[in-house]
Every structure is written in structure tokens, then in C-alpha cells.
Design brief:
Domain Major facilitator superfamily (MFS) profile: 1-69
Pfam families: MFS_1
Strand content: under 5%
Keywords: Membrane, Transmembrane, Transmembrane helix
Oligomer: single chain
Structural class: mainly alpha
Distance between the termini: 14 Å
Mean pLDDT: 88
GO molecular function: transmembrane transporter activity
Number of strands: 0
Transmembrane segments: 45-66
Helix content: over 70%
Length: 69
């Protein structure tokens, strides 16, 4: 993702790299908290299923957004 964000036009490159960095830090901060609550409520199988669904949705969304640019 970082490689793709640095391939953007110079005007958009700074914003793309900043958004990537921010999303990494937000994910590292909120991921364990949210995953902990999900695993406490439904177990590890539910936690990993939800995580897989979120990752699949993000992958499809990212792919479609990259095709537009």
C-alpha cells in the first residue's frame, strides 16, 4: 500500500502517505481493543471471522479505489 501511495501525483502524494500512516496507527490502537471485546463476547472464532470479513471488505474497497486513479 505504501508503494501505491507514493506512485500518486505529487500534489496527492503527501496526503496519501499521511492517510496511510494515520490508518496504521489507528488500526494498531483500536484493533486490540475491538478484538478483545469481540473475543470476550463470542470467542476467538468469531473474532477471526469478523477480522477476515473486515479485511476482505477493505481489500475490495482499496482495489476499486486504486483502479479509479
Amino acid at each position: 500500500m505504501q508503494t501505491e501511495s507514493t506512485k500518486l501525483a505529487p500534489k496527492a502524494r503527501g496526503a496519501a502517505v499521511a492517510l496511510l500512516a494515520a490508518s496504521l496507527y489507528v488500526g494498531q490502537g483500536l484493533g486490540p481493543i475491538i478484538s478483545g471485546h469481540i473475543s470476550a463476547a463470542g470467542g476467538y472464532a468469531v473474532m477471526f471471522s469478523v477480522s477476515a470479513a473486515v479485511m476482505a471488505a477493505l481489500g475490495v474497497t482499496s482495489s476499486s479505489l486504486l483502479r479509479r486513479h
